Amino acid sequence: MDTTAAPTVHGRGLDEARTPEILQAALAVLAEVGYDRMTMEAVAARAHAGKATLYRRWASKAELVVEAVKVMKTECLPPLSDTGSLHEDLRTVARLITTPASDDELCVMRGLASALAHDRDLATVFEREFLSQRRADMADLLRCAQERGEIPPGRDIEILAHVLPSMVFVRSLVTSKKVDPDFLERLIDEVLIPAATAPVTQRAQKESHVSSS
Q1: According to CATH, what is the number of the domain 16-62?
Q2: Nearest in space to 195 (alpha carbons), one of 83, 79, 86
Q3: pLDDT tens-digit profile of 13-51?
Q4: Could you tell me the pLDDT band of residue 117, with boundaries at 50, 70 and 90?
Q5: In the CATH hierarchy, which fold is given to the domain comprising 77-206?
Q6: Rg of the chain on CA atoms, in Å
Q7: In the chain, what are the domain boundaries?
Q8: What is the distance between the alpha carbons of residues 83 and 75, in angstroms, rounded to a whole number?
Q9: DSSP string for 36-86
Q10: For labelling, which of 6, 34, 58, 169 has a CA lying 20 to 30 Å from the CA of 194?
Q11: Which residues, including other chains, have CB under 8 Å from residue 186's CB and lie 6 or more apart?
């Protein structure tokens, strides 16, 4: 049956049961060819849907990608749990990052990377939906460790929260190297934990007090 024949109100004609399939098709095409070469026609073909079906739900390629990456973000990295240990908390994060779902996420991010420099809207989405959320999750984890006494008072949690997400994305998107358990273990043990647990200098305490006031 041709789902593109009858006109309908924007956003209401799409069978909602097909939405996950179309979003997965969008992510697959994005990962394969990149954002610039991605087309609504290619997504429709991959999902075995009519192009008009997509346009009734998403007015543009950008809207479709935004929804797809939001869904992917939720599936790839569930809410972090408090294990009671900073080291184990970070190990849990490392295990989540190296799952097949996270590998798929990084492939999609590489597909978006080529467009970030010249597409302000996409760059905003990338910051808000990925880096910003990853940093917020990491900051919550570090604050819990600080409350347990594992991180000294006065440590700049916001700065520390940038380390792991930024290094993961730089390694994957800029250098195209694999984010494997060995890399994450060294990053956690040799960089993040020593930086988080080192004694706080008077200057750092002063700066942290000023930033929080």
Answers
A1: 1.10.10.60
A2: 86
A3: 446 778 999 999 998 898 888 888 999 999 999 999 988
A4: confident
A5: Tetracycline Repressor; domain 2 (1.10.357)
A6: 21
A7: 16-62, 77-206
A8: 21
A9: TT--HHHHHHHHT--HHHHHHH-SSHHHHHHHHHHHHHHHHSPPP---S-H
A10: 169
A11: none
